[in-house]
């Protein structure tokens, strides 16, 4: 087999099956990344969603026997919704971040990687391959950067010159010794717009994040959101795009190559109050296909209450009172109490006073007190 010719065939095939960019790198260990991951762990800057075994993250030979190369793929996603919502007075909506628009990208990229695997195995039946997207051991960004897909921006994203940073990443470790591509030079220069745009200061330095402070992370947690971040979440019900929308490399970048990624604004910019009352089935029907639903209903409902507090939406008070009175989960009740305090008004006050007398959970009690303090100042 002529490996260089096969690489060209693979590149041509990747275009046919809807892969927007493909790059190749060696299967050598990611030594620089290793130090970085250890440092992030020491500083307590990790999210906890990463694969915990650092050796597996940096050493492809622990994932596939005698690996010889890694193929990196990128698929561009839309940054603007084709259908615009006509906003009606008094309607309050939340927003899912762009990486959660349309069908869950894990399915889409896995489909492309499966097709690529089949193509390889048809030509080289004894090849070994192992693909992953997001939930795999490797750092998708470190692979993509080394394979020449894009540079590693100060906002931490891999930025492609063609599509900006609005690309999903995935990769395949293979036993075939493909010629590696050359990494792209850093193009951030003296710009630091993303650092300035980050609402919480989570980008502690260019290219370094404290995930614990990142709104994207916070919207994906299950507990109570720490006080200092609640107001900064705004109306985001899942994820955050601020360090990408601020980036000049994303200016004018909006690609609609993949039908599955198209949006329905009623879903990705949903009305907030109906979310509070959704049954599990309703939640699954409406949001189940989004990547942003992976943590289930409660975190989205909690974020929706924070968004209603952000809008100070008085029409939401009866629904928030219902959550405070009838929900089992302390996180839901506590967030409702805090939101009622933020929104204010007579019935919010009465509900908080009433709940104060009967509530037994310490966390919820604290949120009720916070709510009442806000109303009394
Ligand atoms: C954990 C995780 C998160 C965490 C932590 C994010 C982070 N920056 O580490 C949280 C929940 C906060 C998060 C948020 C988001 N995520 Co996320 N996330 C991941 C996940 C699972 C692991 C990331 C990881 O290991 N981070 C650890 C850091 C240390 O490594 P890294 O960023 O992977 O690699 C870079 C650094 O190590 C750097 N580096 C290495 N050494 C050194 C040394 C120096 C001095 C410097 C400066 C840099 C540096 O170079 C590497 C390449 O860029 C990956 C999927 C995967 N398996 O890789 C997706 C992934 C990174 N997420 C992705 C996306 C889309 C997002 C969001 C945009 C979603 C959203 N809209 O809300 C935000 C963006 C936040 C941000 N600014 O990074 C995409 C990124 C696509 C892209 N074009 O870059 C990925 C690759 C998923 C995918 N398969 O498409 N995410
Ligand atoms: S995703 Fe939002 S909170 Fe996280 S680093 Fe970017 S701007 Fe900051
Ligand atoms: S905003 Fe500027 S510094 Fe940040 S990633 Fe984009 S180009 Fe780089």
TrEMBL record:
Source organism superkingdom = Bacteria
Task: List the catalytic residues.
Answer: 134 (proton donor)
* Needed cofactors: [4Fe-4S] cluster; cob(II)alamin
The record's principal subcellular location, in a coarse class, is cytoplasm
Q: Where in the cell is it found?
A: Cytoplasm
4Fe-4S ferredoxin-type domain span: 178-208
- Residues reported to bind [4Fe-4S] cluster 1: 188, 191, 194, 247
Q: Which GO terms describe its biological process?
A: tRNA queuosine(34) biosynthetic process
Q: EC number(s) for this protein? A: 1.17.99.6
Signal among keywords: no
**Role summary:** Catalyzes the conversion of epoxyqueuosine (oQ) to queuosine (Q), which is a hypermodified base found in the wobble positions of tRNA(Asp), tRNA(Asn), tRNA(His) and tRNA(Tyr).
Protein name as it appears in the record:
Epoxyqueuosine reductase
């Amino acid at each position: 087999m002529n490996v260089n010719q096969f690489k060209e065939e693979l590149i041509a095939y990747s275009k046919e099956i809807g892969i927007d960019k493909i790059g190749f790198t060696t299967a050598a260990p990611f030594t620089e990344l290793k130090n970085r991951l250890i440092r992030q762990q020491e500083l307590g800057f990790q999210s906890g969603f990463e694969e915990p075994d650092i050796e597996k993250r940096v050493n492809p030979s622990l994932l596939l026997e005698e690996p010889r190369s890694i193929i990196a793929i990128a698929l561009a996603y839309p940054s603007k919704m084709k259908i615009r919502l006509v906003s009606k007075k008094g309607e309050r909506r939340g927003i899912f971040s762009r990486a959660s628009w349309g069908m869950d990208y894990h399915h889409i990229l896995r489909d492309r990687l499966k097709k690529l695997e089949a193509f390889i195995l048809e030509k080289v039946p004894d090849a070994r391959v192992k693909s992953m997207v997001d939930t795999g051991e490797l750092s998708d960004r470190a692979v993509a950067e080394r394979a020449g897909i894009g540079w590693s921006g100060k906002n931490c994203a891999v930025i492609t010159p063609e599509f900006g940073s609005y690309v999903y990443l995935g990769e395949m470790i293979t036993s075939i010794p493909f010629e590696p591509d050359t990494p792209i030079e850093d193009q951030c220069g003296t710009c630091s717009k993303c650092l300035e745009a980050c609402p919480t200061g989570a980008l502690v330095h260019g290219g370094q994040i404290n995930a614990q402070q990142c709104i994207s992370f916070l919207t994906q947690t299950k507990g109570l959101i720490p006080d200092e971040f609640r107001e900064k979440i705004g109306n985001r019900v899942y994820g955050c795009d601020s360090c990408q929308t601020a980036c000049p490399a994303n200016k004018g970048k909006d690609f609609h190559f993949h039908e599955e990624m198209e949006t329905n604004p009623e879903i990705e910019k949903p009305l907030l109050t109906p979310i509070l009352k959704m049954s599990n089935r309703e939640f699954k029907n409406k949001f189940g296909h989004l990547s942003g639903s992976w943590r289930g209903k409660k975190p989205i409902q909690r974020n929706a209450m924070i968004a209603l507090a952000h809008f100070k939406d008085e029409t939401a008070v009866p629904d928030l009172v219902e959550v405070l009175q009838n929900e089992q989960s302390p996180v839901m009740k506590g967030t409702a109490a805090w939101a009622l305090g933020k929104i204010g008004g007579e019935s919010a006050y009465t509900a908080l006073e009433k709940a104060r007398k009967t509530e037994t959970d310490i966390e919820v009690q604290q949120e009720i007190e916070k709510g009442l303090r806000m109303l009394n100042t």
